[in-house]
């Protein structure tokens, strides 16, 4: 499996002597997409090593992670259980329909109960209820996920000054930072409102992974468009024109926001003339079907 580099061409950045490349993590796997494959790879190995036959994880009704864990279980021989935030709605949306078709058992819990998803006592109760499964956190983010995400940068064959990535739980960004080991500059684009809190989370993830502290990264928190999974007309307009110009599929939760922010920063002169930038496409395209169903949005 490969995630090739694709160079994008536009006067917007080439007039500034800037080269823009996309790391096509979305092409790694047809159903375990992008950064989800990176995050799950070593967790799957650990689950096998510990002789678990079941994976249990958490997510919302449109979660890329839920879809990816279901697909991984089907491909690698695990039973899968998805703890879903909120009430059941029938018929199932495209994400949950795919998950069940891949064999995942869905269990719905209240939003209040869902807040306990990291609580040790609650996790112990779940382990007893479901026969000692291998538990993967929401979004797949743990130290093994960070290890997997360090490999995003290890196979980039060009020299570059900046690497950019959207961020939800911080695991992918932590892996990229750790993988670079102090080289270059990393820009993270949180997709949650008030994403500044991720700084501490990312630092803790890196510390747990390799005990290091890095200063060559920052969070760009101005492009969340109202919060997680929130969209505005200007984001969708940008995505449509960007996709048409560059033949690059995007989705509005992560990659659409990152590319909007990146192009806006370029236009504002944020990057020195002659910079080389790699933008990581983290996948998640399965979510577009849900946006179309929920909001009638063509993205």
Account of the 3D structure:
The structure is a single chain. With 299 residues, this protein is an alpha/beta fold. It has two domains: 5-30 and 142-293, Rossmann fold; 35-140, 3-Layer(aba) Sandwich (Rossmann fold), CATH 3.40.50. The protein contains twelve helices and ten strands. It has helices at residues 11-14, 35-49, 64-76, 94-101, 111-114, 120-129, 143-154, 171-180, 198-210, 233-246, 255-267, 287-295; strands spanning 5-8, 19-24, 54-59, 79-85, 105-109, 134-135, 162-167, 185-190, 217-219, 276-281. Strands 1-2-10-7-8-9 form a six-stranded mixed sheet. Helix 7 crosses helix 9 (198-210). It starts with a strand and ends with a helix.
- Proper CATH architecture of the largest domain: 3-Layer(aba) Sandwich
Percentage of residues in DSSP E strands: 15-25%
Largest sheet geometry = 6 strands, mixed
Largest beta sheet: what is the strand line-up? Answer: 1-2-10-7-8-9
- Radius of gyration, whole Å: 19 Å
Give helix and strand order, one letter per element, not per position. Answer: EHEHEHEHEHHEHEHEHEHHEH
Mean pLDDT: 95
Q: Which key phrases capture this entry?
A:
single chain; 299 residues; alpha/beta; Rossmann fold; 2 domains; 6-stranded mixed beta sheet; 4-stranded parallel beta sheet; globular
Question: Summary?
Answer:
By secondary structure, the protein is an alpha/beta fold. It has helices at residues 11-14, 35-49, 64-76, 94-101, 111-114, 120-129, 143-154, 171-180, 198-210, 233-246, 255-267, 287-295; strands spanning 5-8, 19-24, 54-59, 79-85, 105-109, 134-135, 162-167, 185-190, 217-219, 276-281. It has 2 domains: 5-30 and 142-293, Rossmann fold (3-Layer(aba) Sandwich), CATH 3.40.50; 35-140, Rossmann fold.
